[in-house]
Structures are given as structure tokens and as C-alpha cells.
Design a protein that fits this description.
Blueprint lengths: L8 E3 L2 E3 L1 H11 L8 E3 L5 E3 L2 E3 L4 E3 H12 L9 H13 L5 E6 L2 E6 L4
Antiparallel strand pairs: 1-2, 3-6, 4-5, 7-8
Amino acid sequence: MAQQTPKSVTLLGHVIAPETVREVIRKASAVSWGTHLLRWRYFDVSDGGVTYHRDALIPAGLWHLLKRVYIDQNWPVGTRLGDLNEEALATIQHPDTEIYVYGYYRTARLACSEDF
């Protein structure tokens, strides 16, 4: 049986070709949380010997880690950012992961179908 070639699709006026998807996966695989700071809008938390107070500005990766551990409780206390990065990479590169794009504060963002 011959292998089917993935086809391009048009989404909101943009052609999404298999090459585009491969490029998105390649770039997302860097698992870079960015250099911007996010406001911690939840309660005070102590993690790794440091207390992060409500309304503190903290790096984006740390913000996501604290949220997954203390707010969503998807990860146990003691989880490190490296653990979150490894899980994000595994999710990004998993063949069943679906990619979707959404608008957030007038900026296009990329997300995976699983909340890692």
C-alpha cells in the first residue's frame, strides 16, 4: 500500500503545508519560554527555598512551572523547570500532538493539544 503524502490546508487564508508544520515543530522543540516576565497573580508560594509573592514579576518558564505545581497541581512539589521542559519537548515531538493557533492579546500564539 502506498504511503499518502500529507496535504496542505488553508486556515484563515493561510496555506499550512507539511513543511510549515515541520518548521513549527522544529522551532517549538527549542522549548524556550522567552525572556519576558509575567506577573504572579496567585497566592504566595515557596519553591526551592525562595518565596514568590503575589504580584511579583517572574520569568515566564518559572511562572508556568509554579502554575503547574501549585495552581493546577498537575506536577508534584519538587518538580524542576528541567522536568517541565522535558515533558514539553516530548509533547511537542509526539506524533499524535495537534497544533493549534489562537489569538491572545492581539498576538498569535502557538500551543499544543495537550496541556503539559
